Amino acid sequence: MQPIAKSSKLNNVCYDIRGPVLARAKEMEEEGHRIIKLNIGNPAPFGFGAPEEILQDVIRNMDSASGYTDSKGLFAARKAIMHYTQEKNIRGVHIDDIIIGNGVSELIVMAMQALLNNGDQVLVPMPDYPLWTAAVTLAGGAARHYLCDEQTGWLPDLKDMENKITANTRGIVLINPNNPTGALYPREILEGIIEIARHHGLVIFADEIYDKVLYDGNTHTSIASLADDVLFVTFNGLSKNYRTCGYRAGWLVISGEKRHAADYIEGLNMLASMRLCANVPGQLAIQTALGGYQSIDDLVAPTGRLCKQRDLAYNMLTEIPGVSCVKPKAGLYLFARLDPKVYPIKDDQQFILDLLLEEKVLLVQGTGFNWHSPDHFRVVFLPNLDDLTEAFTRIARFLENYRKQHSTIALVDKKETKQRSVQA
Question: Which of 68, 77, 127, 309 matches a 20 to 30 Å C-alpha distance to 387?
Fold first, then answer.
């Protein structure tokens, strides 16, 4: 019999956040090992439950969740989202400009499927959240990765962005606050991106799922609030700000120059109708979440659990020789750099696997976020302080052994080179 192969559309698609190293970690757990997981931004396993008022409202209204809703979502939920866009100073948003999805992930795929023809290109940040690159690829397009510069705090390099634009470029993806770096983009950077999109007639796709997970008094500016003459598609949801990842309640908002995008918007509406509607129980949480007490503010305050865990993770990581990191202003992650002179890594996935096998700590390698070199890794700082302390103690021990091993190898190589030189 002929083997049944996967679609060739998947040949260049990867999602290493849930890749082969995670599969090995699951095998180890089945064998009885306890793995400290710093790989996925899923708050629930670490004691971050949904706010009680959201949970209770969903339970009370569950009787009304049996049937399909409008393909774009419940009216009350979309009305609450519309009010939220007004709070973010995004102008001209109406109920029909909002589509609710089964998490932002579904909507990202829909947005790319509705826009791209084979060979079209989309500018995606490097590093990125890899679903963006995968969604572009699955839609028949090609992701061109513009550099986010670690030396400037991971801000987008606007010159590099401009240089990546071709006649086939259709849009620019902006992840702000950024996953995996924790960067938060200032107004001048956002205005520079708008000017590039304006000049080249591009759509701006703004992933703002972490817009309330902000530290040190920082504030978030929605890029769609800064112009009306560019088409914006803004993504947000409940999963991170309200610790409800499993509810799968996300939304996209269309704003800005909509008149010339009628055909694209029709495509989005077609795809929304084809999947009938987003899950209704998750939609029931939206109005209460957006209009209720914002408990995320307590978690990110200087005395809050998330802020304390970020500070501990940053301090312990950067105390390790040869490890540096830009302190995140937002989000749930650190994107740490390993000095290549100290850690001459050739295959960062193997490096992460070795760490898992030796120390029972699970991370994600930097190339899993489409970073160009095997010299970074992402850390999730959701575990409690004791577990984080244990995890970073193990990571430090692993890296110390790595340094010793490779310094010995380098010394041997140097002696052999010298001997060959003398013999010659």
Answer: 127
